[in-house]
Write a structure and sequence with these properties.
single chain; 266 residues; alpha+beta; D-amino Acid Aminotransferase, Chain A, domain 1; D-amino Acid Aminotransferase, Chain A, domain 2; eight-stranded mixed β-sheet; five-stranded antiparallel β-sheet; aminotransferase; Aminotransferase class IV; Aminotrans_IV; BCAT-like_C; Aminotransferase-like
Length: 266
Amino acid sequence: MATAPATFVWSRGALVEQELQPHTELLVADSWLVEASGTVRALDAHRERFLDSVGRTAGDAGTIAAATSFWGAAIGRLKAFPQARLFPRIELARLQHDDALELRLRVRLAPRPRTSSVVVSHAGDDPRRVPRVKGPDLEHLVALRGEAQENGADEIVLLHDGLVVDGSSSALLWWRGETLVAPSGDLARVASVTARSIRLIATATGTRVVEERARPADLEGCELWAVNALHGISAVEQWIDGPALAVRPTRAATWRKRLAALSRPL
């Protein structure tokens, strides 16, 4: 029986288990949660985002074709890890020793889910170099979040010209009464699969959805969610040195159930 953690590379049309070589740049990355039951949410959307990002970054048909085959092999490999709650990550990286591109799979055990969060604003403008692609800025954001966690925060709110745009490892959604709100679509950020799923649920349930260009102070009294593939919906209980927020545990719990209902077998 396969056990996590484990790492694999795409080599000569096959997925090979081996240690990963050092890289100079993480060009693309994508992650999703696999429950112990073997189910996952919105896997097709993760596939679409990964392959689109590879296309934007590498551009050549050969790399895109390899990434497509790699994706299928990676999903097949994950099925060999039964009864384990996983948070795998697939990557396109540039290797340190020869500057070559490499497709890689990290099979990781998932940490415990977090249903509530404490956030803090990033000091300065959005630190991302490539805000629409998950990967190039991931390691820097992880380091920034680690520093914030040492000071009592779980997540960092990223601002662009003072406007709320994203979290360091999550998308941000908030509620004004019964209206679900997302940052304005013209603010550059990674296309969150989880936020997209929540907005689709909102449409299906007749919930009004709008977009705003909002500063932190504009969220005073709102209910704020940090959402991602790992934790699903995490209700923000406190914004350090930021606006006072409302917390409605029953609404968050209801929407977590709706989100879980989207899960399908791997």
